[in-house]
Design brief:
This protein is an alpha/beta fold and about 240 residues long. It is built from six helices and ten strands. The protein has a six-stranded mixed sheet with strand order 6-7-8-3-9-10, with helices on both faces. Strands 2-1-4-5 form a four-stranded antiparallel sheet, with helices on one face. Helix 3 packs across helix 4 and helix 5 runs parallel beside helix 6. The protein starts with a strand and ends in a 12-residue tail after the last strand.
Length: about 240
């Protein structure tokens, strides 16, 4: 049985507006994410998926409850320690690529490798996502799918323990979306990187080891997938 990489207990997040208005984005969530596992989070907008991802990644803090990364209580860390945690252990991939337009693909990846403690070479990371031949191209010369794969290369170049992906194919067509999912699948299979993916495409759940469905800040259902499919089999 793989070891847990994340554990949450009674995790809640409340956003307040004014004195009386509050939104309970997460409400008592108990969750475990395992090493080497690909996990897909499904649920309608506002169900708590992105809030959970941001807390796991150290970008936001819970209102109550506890989050462990392995044996580290993330909810007890101060800002500087959370920054080190994000730098050393977490790779992020978002719907919009957040590349620096004046830098080449190699240079965009190098932004991470220059500060990570044990990075890959930028060229190695770009080869892993199938972009070794585009290494000196600027973002404007790359397709949307290629830009997202540069963003994945940048995320994995630090050799993160976890890869957190918020709608990584949301802005892509089916062909380029499959290329991005193939890159994520390769990283998960080859390196055993725990990968958590938020998506609105319910069919992407079929390539995951586990699927966690959210509703109104709660986990509504957990499904184990015994028969995973390849990214090119996903219906768009």
């Amino acid at each position: 049985m793989p070891s847990p990489v994340f554990r949450t207990e009674n995790l809640s997040k409340i956003y307040r507006s004014g004195e009386k208005n509050e939104v309970r984005a997460l409400d008592g969530v108990d969750l475990t994410v395992f090493e080497s596992e690909m996990t897909v989070l499904l649920g309608p907008s506002g169900s708590g998926k992105s809030t959970l991802l941001n807390i796991l990644g150290g970008l936001d803090q819970a209102t109550s409850g506890t989050v462990w990364f392995r044996d580290t209580d993330l909810t007890a860390l101060q800002d500087r320690a959370l920054t080190r945690y994000r730098r050393d252990h977490v790779g992020f991939v978002f719907q919009f690529y957040n590349l620096v337009p004046s830098l080449t693909a190699r240079e965009n990846v190098q932004l991470v490798t220059d500060v990570a403690p044990n990075p890959m070479r930028p060229a190695e990371a770009l080869e892993l996502v199938g972009l070794g031949h585009r290494i000196n191209h600027f973002p404007a010369a790359l397709s949307g799918g290629e830009q997202q794969r540069v963003a994945i290369a940048r995320a994995i170049a630090k050799r993160p323990d976890v890869l957190l992906c918020d709608e990584p194919t949301g802005a892509l067509d089916s062909k380029t979306g499959v290329q991005v999912l193939e890159a994520l699948n390769t990283i998960n299979d080859r390196f055993g990187t725990a990968t958590v993916i938020i998506t609105h495409n319910a069919d992407i759940r079929r390539m995951a080891h586990r699927v966690i469905r959210f509703q109104d800040g709660h986990i509504a259902k957990v499904e184990v997938n015994d028969h995973r499919i390849a990214p090119h089999e996903i219906v768009w």
